Amino acid sequence: MIRWNVSKSNKAINREQAIADLRKLTHICKWATICTTVALALGLFAVIAIELLLILPSLSQGFYLQSVEFKAGEGPFLALVGTNAQTPLMLVAHDGHTAIGSVMMTCLALAIALSAYRFFSAIEKAGRPFDLECIRILRQAGHLFLIGGVAVKLLGAIATGLILSGFGGNFTDALGGQLLDPSMLFAGLIISLIASVFQYGCILQIQDDELL
Known about the structure:
Elements: H1 2-9, H2 15-59, E1 64-68, E2 77-81, E3 89-92, H3 99-126, H4 132-166, H5 182-211
Antiparallel strand pairs: 1-2, 2-3
Helix pairs in contact: 2-3, 3-4, 4-5
C-alpha cells in the first residue's frame, strides 16, 4: 500500500491535461456563478416590484413615521405608514438593521458574484490561475468584501438616519444595529492574502515559461 502511494505521487504530471481539467472546472464554476447571480438579481427585482406594488399606492396619498409591530415578540419597527397601515415601508427593523442597508448589501453581493464570474472567465481564457488579470480581479473581490464589512451597513444606517430626521424621528435610531460585519472583513483579508499568494505564483509561472 505504501509503495503504491509512493509510485502514485512520483507519477509525472501532464501539463496539458492539468490545463484542460482546470479549464473544464472553471467553465462549470463560471456557469454556476451566472445562474446564482441571475437568480439573486431576479429575486431582488421581484421583491422590489412586489413591495412597490403593495406600498406605493398606500404612500401616494401621504405618509408619516410610525413605530409598528408586525410580529408579536419581535419588538417595534420604524416605518413610513400611508393610508393603509397594513402595508408600511419598513426603515429600521427591531434588531436595528435598516432596509436601505439590506438593499446595499444585496447590490454588493451582485458585484462580488460578477467579480467571481470574471475571475473564472480569466482562468478559463488563460488556462492558468497565476495570471495578472486573475490577480487584479481577486484583489478587487477582496476590496469589495472589505467595503462590505466596514462601510455598507454604516452608510445604509446613515442614509436611514437622515430619512428619520426628515420625518421628525431620531437620527440615532438607525445606528442601533451591527454596523460592522466581522465575517466579511475576515473574508476580505483572506482573499487579499490569497491574491498575494497568486502574485508570487505568477512570478514563478513567468520564470517557468522562460525556461520552456
